[in-house]
Every structure is written in structure tokens, then in C-alpha cells.
Design a protein that fits this description.
Blueprint lengths: L2 H29 L16 H6 L1 H4 L3 E14 L2 E8 L2 E8 H4 L1 H9 L5 E10 L5 E12 L15 H6 L1 H7 L1 H23 L3 E2 L5 E2 L10 E5 L4 E5 L4 H9 L4 E9 L11 E10 L3 H20 L3 E4 L2 E4 L5 E4 H9 L9 H11 L10 H13 L7 E7 L8 E2 L2 E12 L2 E8 L4 H16 L10 H10 L3 E7 H9 L18
Parallel strand pairs: 3-5, 6-10, 14-15
Antiparallel strand pairs: 1-2, 1-4, 2-3, 4-5, 7-9, 8-9, 10-11, 11-19, 12-13, 15-17, 16-17, 17-18, 18-19
Helix pairs in contact: 7-8, 8-10, 9-15, 11-13, 12-13, 14-15
Length: about 500
């Protein structure tokens, strides 16, 4: 057995011993008719943060607070403890003279991690610490498992993600990240509302895996005896609503993709898509630039941020460049002069760019060049425009070059943050592109979408010229909270079970 395994085993034995002691304490309370789990309500009047922020208002006034014991100092007939609630920590002075002998004796047996209520008056100690002088204390819930040793906290990254509830208790900065997440989402909804968009909800269970190129999760509906999919994207349903007469709609919700996991990808993730009738991808560039810069300003107070040591300026005026121009800048290869699949395959071989045999067209190879040579170099906000039609099955073609489409992706710090189109509203063209996706799937492309005949039917009813965009909100929150991994901004990221 290694030293690490031996230490882990010893630690587990210690935890089991401490848990048994706590269970014994609980049993004694229950036998004495003082079972804390029977308490159904506690009338808290104030929080720690509220009291500390308004000391003059609360000085010498009675308050009732509640929270988890995170520190405790027993000094004979008087003690101090610190509790932590939803918005901070506050100290309490507890003495035998105020509580009486029996209550004070019980208080001394309570453990770090127990949840208690305290009623008393607010004062400052000799060291000027705002505190509550306890007149009564109540055990509200018994913690049967000890928290991590306070000087070490919860530092194991894997354990932090698995036991987020402990992570939130032990690491206050983690809670701040999720408070910021909530504020960011609130500001996004406020911005969309102010710009005339209506928030909607569309199904997460679908009968056709379409909306983007991605491998879906497959499930089964028992009553209908039907294979179904967790949605890859809400795109087609949102465009159905534009067909139905809603000019501006948006949805914030979960998407699901049965793909790899890394610091940028989680199988389920939060995405926002929005669509506006009578607009195009240029309008989507303008509104996404406004959205992100406004949210940064309102939440962080600035558009100049630092992400993982890299300074990034989110102020409007973002760079715009076509994919072919960006490739030419980085490699010298000009795909405007390369017109056949064979020519593209030849230059890919010369430059060492790998591609799948089922994705050997000029368009696919242009996309591979971009991902190989350009993507990671885009640090400041950049719109990459005009993608190949082969990788954009739902996008309107460019009039001057039908091999390309009116599509852009937004890149910051070498990562994609958004994807937008001038939406394809030609039902005949859309049907033919769906057929090509079906053919690609039959040839082994697991990410190719299926045929959605009802969506083609909707286009036949008539979709007005429309601009649409999707933004990966988890990545945006990572950027605005300076979080290195997507798991740092998800309360409960997907994890492989330990057993």
C-alpha cells in the first residue's frame, strides 16, 4: 500500500470515528426529547451580511440569525462561535449567564457544521468585531459528517465538483462565482427584454436530432414506443415561432451533446438562442457585441477584463474578418484561388492538415485549416465570417459565392462564444441540405443531423428573412468570472460515478 493510500485509509477511519461520536450525540438529544430534525421552522429576522452592512441601524437591537457553525472557541463559562449564512459570517458571544447552565452545557457539545439559530443583541467586541450577544441558541440541524479540516478546506478539484455543497461552504469565492452567474443571466434577460425579444420555451425532447452538427443523446418514450433525442439545439423550433408570427424570440435553456468532455465542454450546457425577423447576420453581430459589452459593464463595472492572465477588451468595435481571409493571414494559403476538392486536398497534404475521408470537400478542408491554424490565435473579440456551406446546413448562401454562407462565429481568447446566421428560408434548398446530412450519417458521420420534414413544411408556409444567433452562456460566464474550466461555473457538472 502506498503512503497516499495509507493516509487515505487512516483519514477514513478518523472520519468514521468522528461520525460515530456525532451520531451518539444525536441519539442523546433524541432520547432527551430534543430531536433537532423535528423542528420545521425558525423565524430568522436578519442575515449576517445585512447586520454587518448596517451596524448603526442594528447596534444594541435584538436580532435572530441562523446559519452553520464554522468556528467555535470554548472558554469556560463564556464562548465564541461564528456562523455562516447565505451572505456572510457573523460572530456570536455565548455565555452561561445568558443561557443558563443546561442550555450552555448543550451548546458546548455542538459541532462544527451544525446549523443553529441565535437570538440576541448586536454589539462590537473590544477588537471592534460586529457580533451578536446571544440570549438564546437553538440547534436546528445536526451535522453527522465533519467538514474538511478548516486549514486545508476542500482543495481536491474532483471532490469539489462531486460535493459542491461542501465546496460552497468551505470556499467562499466559489459562492461568489455562482452569484455572478445569476447576475449575468439576469442582465442578459434584461437586455433582451429591452430590445424587444420575447422569452419562450421549446421542447428538450425531440423526435429528430437536428439543429446543429453534434452526436445526440438517445432515449425512449415508453407510452409512444418511440425513440427520442435530448435536443442538440432549440434552433428549428424557434424558427417555427418566427414562421408563426413572433418577430423576436429568445430562449435560455439546456442543450445536450453526447461528445467529449474537457475544460470547455460538458454534455449538458446552458445556451441562449435568439431570432429576429427581417434582419441578417450583420444585425446579429451588432446586437451580440452590444449584449456582451453591456452585460460586462453592468455586472463587472468595466468592459476591460482579465481572463486567465490575458487582458481582453470587450468594448464595441470588434474585429470582423472572413474565414478565408483569416486563413490567408496566418498561412498564406488563399482558398479564393482554390476551386476544387482535389486542389484543396493537395494543399491540405502540403500543410499537414488532416481531414476525415467523408469530409474531404473544399468546404470541409477550409474549416479544418481555420481550426488548425487560426482559432487559437483569436484573443481579442473577433467575428469570423462567411463559412463554407458544407459545415452550415441551416444558413443562407452568399449571393456572390454560393459555396459560402452568411454565417459568423464569435471568438474570444481562442474559443468560440457564439454562432450566427442569416437563416436559410428556401424550403427546396433546405430539403436538399437535409438529404446531404442523411447521406453523411449513412456513411458513418455520427454528428450529421437527420431529416426534419415538418421544419421543411414550416419553411414552405413561409419564413421571413431572419437573423439568428446562439451564445454559449457557460463559456461567457467563464470569461466574465475568470474561471478556467466549465466545471467551475456549473453547480453540478457531469462526473463519472466513483462506484
Amino acid at each position: 500500500m502506498s503512503e497516499k493510500d495509507n493516509n487515505n485509509q487512516m483519514e477514513e477511519l478518523d472520519i468514521n470515528h468522528l461520525m460515530q461520536i456525532r451520531r451518539d450525540k444525536l441519539k442523546e438529544l433524541q432520547e432527551a426529547g430534543k430531536n433537532p430534525y423535528e423542528i420545521t421552522k425558525f423565524n430568522r429576522t436578519n442575515t449576517a451580511g445585512e447586520i454587518k452592512a448596517n451596524y448603526e441601524k442594528f447596534e444594541q437591537k435584538d436580532v435572530t440569525v441562523a446559519g452553520r457553525i464554522i468556528a467555535k472557541r470554548i472558554m469556560g463559562k463564556a464562548s465564541f462561535c461564528t456562523i455562516q449564512d447565505s451572505d456572510g459570517k457573523i460572530q456570536s458571544y455565548v455565555s452561561i449567564n445568558d443561557l443558563g447552565e443546561e442550555s450552555y452545557k448543550e451548546f458546548k457539545t455542538w459541532d462544527i457544521g451544525d446549523i443553529i439559530g441565535i437570538t440576541g443583541f448586536v454589539f462590537k467586541t473590544r477588537t471592534e468585531e460586529i457580533s451578536v450577544h446571544a440570549k438564546s441558541v437553538t440547534l436546528l440541524s445536526k451535522s453527522l459528517r465533519p467538514l474538511p479540516e478548516k486549514f486545508h478546506g476542500l482543495k481536491d478539484t474532483d471532490l469539489r465538483y462531486r460535493q459542491r455543497y461542501v465546496d460552497l461552504i468551505m470556499n467562499p469565492e466559489v459562492k461568489e462565482t455562482f452569484i455572478l452567474r445569476s447576475k449575468i443571466l439576469k442582465e442578459i434577460r434584461k437586455f433582451m427584454d429591452e430590445h424587444g425579444y420575447m422569452e419562450v420555451e421549446t421542447p428538450m425532447l425531440t423526435t429528430v436530432a437536428t439543429g446543429d452538427a453534434a452526436r445526440p443523446f438517445i432515449t425512449h418514450h415508453n407510452t409512444l414506443d418511440l425513440q427520442m433525442y435530448l435536443r442538440i439545439a432549440p434552433e428549428l423550433n424557434l424558427k417555427r415561432l418566427i414562421v408563426g408570427g413572433f418577430d423576436k424570440v429568445f430562449e435560455i435553456g439546456k442543450n445536450f451533446r453526447n461528445e467529449g468532455m474537457d475544460i470547455k465542454h460538458n454534455p449538458e450546457f446552458t445556451n441562449m438562442e435568439f431570432y429576429s425577423a427581417y434582419e441578417d447576420y450583420n444585425d446579429m453581430m451588432n446586437i451580440s457585441e452590444q449584449l456582451i459589452s453591456t452585460v460586462a459593464k453592468n455586472v463587472l463595472g468595466t468592459t476591460k477584463i482579465t481572463y486567465q492572465g490575458q487582458e481582453i477588451d470587450l468594448a464595441p468595435g470588434w474585429k470582423k474578418i472572413t474565414m478565408i481571409e483569416a486563413i490567408k493571414e496566418r498561412t498564406g494559403v488563399d482558398f479564393n484561388t482554390i476551386n476544387t476538392d482535389e486542389e484543396a486536398q493537395k494543399v491540405a497534404k502540403e500543410k499537414g492538415v488532416e481531414y476525415e475521408e467523408i469530409k474531404n470537400t473544399r468546404g470541409h478542408i477550409i474549416n479544418e485549416f481555420f481550426e488548425t491554424f487560426v482559432e487559437e490565435t483569436l484573443i481579442q473579440p473577433t467575428f469570423i465570417m462567411d463559412y463554407p456551406v458544407e459545415v452550415s446546413p441551416l444558413t443562407k448562401r452568399k449571393k456572390d459565392d454560393p459555396r459560402l454562407v452568411e454565417r459568423f462565429e464569435l471568438f474570444i481568447d481562442g474559443r468560440e462564444y457564439g454562432n450566427a446566421y442569416s437563416e436559410l428560408n428556401d424550403p427546396i434548398d433546405q430539403y436538399e441540405r437535409f438529404l446531404k446530412q442523411v447521406e453523411a450519417k449513412e456513411k458513418g458521420d455520427e454528428e450529421a443531423g437527420g431529416m426534419d420534414e415538418d421544419f421543411v413544411n414550416a419553411l414552405e408556409i413561409g419564413l421571413p428573412p431572419t437573423g439568428g444567433m446562439g451564445i454559449g452562456l457557460d463559456r461567457l460566464i467563464m470569461l466574465l468570472t475568470d474561471s478556467a474550466s466549465i466545471r467551475d461555473v456549473l453547480f453540478f457538472p457531469t462526473m463519472k460515478p466513483l462506484n
